[in-house]
Design brief:
Layout (H helix, E strand, L loop, with lengths): L11 H7 L2 E6 L4 H10 L3 E8 L2 H11 L4 E6 L5 H14 L4 E4 L14 H29 L2 E6 L12 H21 L4 E7 L3 E2 L6 H4 L14 E2 H11 L6 E3 L2 H17 L2
Parallel strand pairs: 1-2, 1-4, 2-3, 4-5, 5-6, 6-9, 7-8
The protein binds NADP nicotinamide-adenine-dinucleotide phosphate (NAP).
NADP nicotinamide-adenine-dinucleotide phosphate binds next to helix 2.
């Protein structure tokens, strides 16, 4: 298991340099995104925090404002005009050195029985928003010869489960996109990570698209759940290792490997 993130991993000069960095975190109002803001507050001077619930972003600002400049941006990233507004804010407050494309949602249930717009919103949020913000951020990172991009994927990316194919497929896209992008931008000193958590304690499983499909937390053994703080700590610690696809937790790594091996077997 990768080491837990700690300030001891950085020299003082690294930290002083990093403390001037600007981060942009989508889905900063809850769960893994809010936790990224907490842990990046130790590395960055400014965080642009994006989500739909402004009051939650204000709470985050009250919590972290003593340590880092927080700029809340209320935006629905499934809406093109809002994505463009986030890009403009990024241009005004940036350049962005650390981009976390984290905002996500699950719409589970049989494809034929779920509303197409709800499925489309997963694609817009996971893929379209990630492409838009990454495309807007890269030129500045390339110019400065440094930067970090973390895309929130999932162990679901390896499985293609029925009743969750659009979610799984959109996360699989992020894995492949991140791998290819890392190969393109490595020479510019930019790190790309596709972070694949398994079951993580957050608001994700309380949202309508998940509960309506009949999901109950107690269906999942307690030992399979991870805290968002641990997931983020493992993500940040793994940046030094240069691995693109990062699975959090041994149980998730084993499950993903088993899913991939089963798919490879089908090819023979
Ligand atoms: N929890 C898990 O078990 C798990 C496992 C694997 C991967 N993931 C991935 O991890 C990421 C974070 O999920 P989480 O577990 O932290 O869930 P969460 O607690 O539900 O947080 C999701 C975040 O995304 C934001 N968001 C949702 N729709 C949005 C939209 N249309 N525009 C802008 N922001 C939006 C939410 O903010 P607002 O509602 O305020 O907009 C919230 O801040 C997601 O990409 C998810 O797929 C989660």
């Amino acid at each position: 298991m990768p080491p837990v993130y700690s300030l001891r991993n950085f020299s003082l000069s690294d930290h002083m340099e990093a403390s001037k960095d600007t981060a942009l975190v989508t889905g900063a109002s809850a769960g893994i995104g809010a936790e990224f803001c907490r842990q990046l507050a130790e590395r960055c001077g400014r965080i642009i925090a994006v989500a739909r619930r402004g009051e939650r972003l204000d709470e985050l600002k009250a919590e972290l404002g003593h340590a880092v400049e927080i700029h809340p941006v209320v935006a629905d990233l499934t809406v093109a005009a809002d994505r463009e507004r986030v890009v403009r804010t990024m241009e005004e407050l940036g350049p962005v050195d650390f981009l976390v494309n984290n905002a996500g949602l699950g719409t589970f249930g049989e494809f034929n029985e779920t509303e197409l717009p709800a499925q489309q919103r997963q694609v817009d949020l996971h893929i379209t928003a990630t492409l838009a913000l990454t495309h807007a951020t890269l030129p500045g990172m390339i110019e400065r010869g440094r930067g970090t991009i973390i895309n929130l994927s999932s162990t679901a990316a390896f499985s293609g489960k029925p009743r969750a194919m659009v979610y799984c497929g959109s996360k699989a896209f992020l894995n492949l996109f991140s791998r290819g992008l890392q190969a393109e931008v490595a020479e510019h000193g930019i790190k790309v990570q596709s972070l694949c958590p398994g079951f993580t304690c957050s608001e994700f499983h309380d949202r309508e698209g998940v509960t309506r499909a009949g999901f109950r937390r107690d269906q999942v053994p307690e030992e399979m759940w991870m805290e968002a703080s641990e997931v983020v700590a493992q993500s940040l610690a793994a940046l030094d290792g240069g691995q693109v696809t990062v699975l959090t937790g041994d149980h998730n790594r084993e499950a993903a490997r088993a899913d991939l091996l089963a798919q490879a077997d089908e090819l023979s």
